[in-house]
TrEMBL record:
InterPro entries: NAD(P)-bd_dom_sf (IPR036291), Sc_DH/Rdtase_CS (IPR020904), SDR_fam (IPR002347), SDR_family_member_7 (IPR053011). CDD domains: 11beta-HSD1_like_SDR_c (cd05332). Belongs to the short-chain dehydrogenases/reductases (SDR) family. It holds the Pfam family adh_short. PANTHER family: DEHYDROGENASE/REDUCTASE SDR FAMILY MEMBER 7-RELATED, DEHYDROGENASE_REDUCTASE SDR FAMILY MEMBER 7. Keywords: Oxidoreductase, Signal. Residues 1-23 form the signal peptide. GO terms for molecular function: oxidoreductase activity. Coiled coil: none annotated. This is Dehydrogenase/reductase (SDR family) member 7.
Length: 348
């Protein structure tokens, strides 16, 4: 009898390991998120009718969130600085869905204007009665070397990406605690989990978000129906690099880089919505071989450092040479070779 139980237990463990390995090799997200996408709740049923406030909704991931949420039947609050672009997104949302004009509120918002956040939150509640989901997606990236970057750039990155997000959450969360339910979803990055060359300030702001919201989650144990979720995408097709900070506040990015080998925005957003629908607390979203970075940093830091050092060196060299457009393809090649060579050397 004991032998039979032991055999069943080992069979179960081996099956779990096999599933984990298959998901890792062929997947584009962490195992929990992949399983949720296969056997979990569907966003079309869980998010229908919910009031979802999306910041940074005028382009990129935020814009795609608006479209897919509209198809799910969510009522939307679209926020960003550019009202004309928000109106464009709203019109397309109406075309793609059965939503009516009153189901979508265009609400211009600047995360840096923190004194306006209380009034903006009141406007949403007055319009829809409540807020079910806040998706903190607003922010900017960075492309510059630390030794060449003015301190003002770091101040701007922290004010926008971190303090601005905290400020808006500060206004929305009390409403959710009063209701006893809600979701605060924050778009972080792989740069919030690991160091990324040319993005020291951006990475710092995302690390700050990770630390803040992970700590906030521990303060909300009396509210089990309030979800604090972090989304950590890898390279995704969007305009974020075009709007990135450089070494000077007023200097635009010279080379945006190739979008060819990045994950599609639609796939990234679909996985995000699956995670929200299933209450996933942290989502890793990236294609291989980038996904291995997440696992390496979590389980094999020696391997992760070896990978990061090689990739970082090449990326900095390309940046200095003004040849950043092909860096994603370079990372793909280097990541594959570096991972396996480091694995053999470290034994991890």
């Amino acid at each position: 009898m004991d032998w039979c139980f032991s055999s069943l237990l080992w069979s179960f463990i081996l099956l779990c390991l096999l599933v984990h390995v298959v998901c890792f090799i062929f997947g584009d997200a962490d195992v929990i998120l992949q399983l949720a996408s296969l056997i979990g709740h569907k966003p079309e049923s869980k998010l229908r009718g919910l009031v979802v406030w999306v910041t940074g909704a005028s382009s990129g991931i935020g814009e795609e969130l608006a479209y897919q949420l509209a198809k799910c039947g969510s009522r939307l609050v679209l926020s960003a600085r550019r009202e004309d672009q928000l109106n464009r997104v709203k019109l397309k949302c109406l075309e793609l869905s059965s939503l009516k004009d009153e189901d979508i509120l265009v609400l211009p918002l600047d995360l840096l204007e923190r004194k306006s956040h209380e009034e903006k939150t009141k406007t949403v509640i007055e319009n829809f009665g409540h807020i079910d989901v806040l998706i903190n997606n607003g922010g900017r990236s960075q492309r510059s070397l630390f030794l060449e970057t003015h301190v003002e750039v770091y101040e701007a990155l922290m004010e926008l990406n971190f303090i601005g997000t905290v400020s808006l959450t500060k206004q929305v969360l009390p409403h959710m605690t009063q209701r006893g339910r809600g979701s605060v979803v924050t778009v972080s990055s792989v740069a919030g989990l690991a160091g990324v060359p040319l993005s020291t300030g951006y990475s710092a702001s995302k690390h700050a978000l990770q630390g803040f919201f992970n700590s906030l989650r521990t303060e909300l144990t009396d509210f089990p129906n309030i979800l604090i979720s972090m989304v950590c995408p890898g390279p995704v097709q969007s305009d974020i690099v075009n709007n990135a900070f450089t070494e000077d506040l007023n200097k635009p990015v010279a080379i945006a880089g190739s979008q060819e080998h990045k994950m599609s925005t639609s796939r990234c957003v679909r996985l995000m919505l699956v995670g929200i629908a299933n209450g996933v607390k942290e989502m890793w979203i990236a294609q291989q071989p980038f996904l291995m970075f997440y696992y390496a940093w979590q389980y094999a830091p020696t391997v992760a450092w070896a990978m990061t050092n090689q990739l970082g060196r090449k990326r900095v060299q390309n940046f200095k040479a003004g040849v950043l457009a092909g860096h994603v393809r370079t990372c793909l090649t280097l990541a594959k070779t570096t991972y396996f060579s480091s694995f053999l050397v470290s034994g991890k």
